[in-house]
Predict the structure of Hydroxyethylthiazole kinase.
Amino acid sequence: MSTITQLPGKTAENLKKIRAGKPLVHNITNFVVMNYTANVLLATGASPVMAHAAGEVEEMVGLAGSLVLNIGTLTDRWVDAMVLAGRRATVLGRPIILDPVGAGATALRTAAARRILAETRVSVVRGNASEILSLGDAAAAGRGVDAVHAVDEAVEVAARLATSLQTTLAVTGKVDLVTDGRKAVRIANGHPLMTAVTGTGCSATAIIGAFLAVDPDPLSAAATGLACFNIAGEMAGEKAAGPGSFMINLLDALYNLRPEEVAERSRFSTA
């Protein structure tokens, strides 16, 4: 992975690569955020496709640069389709990012997230602290998509989980944490209004999917993707009067974001 001092430049480089290559990001995501996350990817420079039918997901993932799996409005059929797509992505070497929305809140959600992790090769798991904790401890409680644990409470279990699952975990909160079990990075960018709009966490996951399509290092892709998204959130918050205008300003900020801005504004530190 790039060193801490190299990450600001790497963030700018990855953003340039996305805009130049317009990678196709295959999303099997939830009804609540489908439209907004597609627009977030478009504004960033990627090409989104939302395809969840079991009959086409294996073919579609073959055309994509990465696969985003989000269990926000899961059904048994959707989980089966996610596993089909994930298995094919694993064979093809396509990076997979999992968003275990609400894991820990119900047995179905927790089991679905663990099944995907067991049957596919997930490069990055992005979730709040409660969701991440639930993947390592069946007793950890969640509350839907809302975190009831702080990021700091997930540091140790995230490192252990990342090692045991051989994946990278991105734990998002007031200060984000990305770890592969050996190295860890914190990202301090962001804005309070990001928690006032449904789908910002899911959008962060989608952004990481785009960065994974151009950066083969999951730790670097997750850290730089979150920095880019959070900086856009800061810029949107500077203009927004509330959650409604923030949503629109966030799309505009992503679209107008200049690589040199992300290099200058990014705030990385070691964990």
User: Anything to note?
Assistant: The first strand starts at residue 24 and ends at 28. Confidence is low (pLDDT under 50) at residues 138-148. The chain has one domain: 4-270.
